[in-house]
Amino acid sequence: MSLVEKSLEPGAGCGKFNVIWVSKGVTMSPFARVTALGAVIAFVLAVPAAAEDTAASKPKKGDPDEVVCEKQEVLGSRLAVKKVCKTRAQWEEQRRADRDLVHKSQMGSCARQAGC
Fold first, then answer.
1. Rounded distance, CA 47 to CA 93, Å?
2. Are 49 and 13 found together in one domain?
3. Is the pTM of this model over 0.90?
4. Secondary structure in 3-state letters for 45-101
5. In total, how many domains does the chain have?
6. To which H or E segment does residue 3 belong?
7. Cα angle vertex 42, ends 41, 45, to 5°?
8. Which terminus of the chain has a smaller tally of CB atoms within 10 A, N or C?
């Protein structure tokens, strides 16, 4: 029984994927080898980067008195950016005030119209 036949038997794979190992008869050109190696390296490097992105998107809990700076785009300019520094508590208060303002403006416009 060859390696290919053995790998096609039920339960011969890793988890739910069957792994097929061929030891003889298959040759790859150098270009195909480099391409396959590049794809594997890109995948291996992309997986930790994706994990870092999801970890960075989670809100960080910290000291409310810690100063945090954010870069904000200047209205009317594509390139200008200003740096705004506030404590975590001040940023949270600003976000809460912005949320309240949006909520009031949305609810206020509905109250002026009949049958909203």
1. 36
2. yes
3. no
4. HHHHHHHHHHHHHCCCCCCCCCEEEEEEECCCCCCCEEEEEEEHHHHHHHHHHHHHH
5. 2
6. helix 3-7
7. 85
8. N
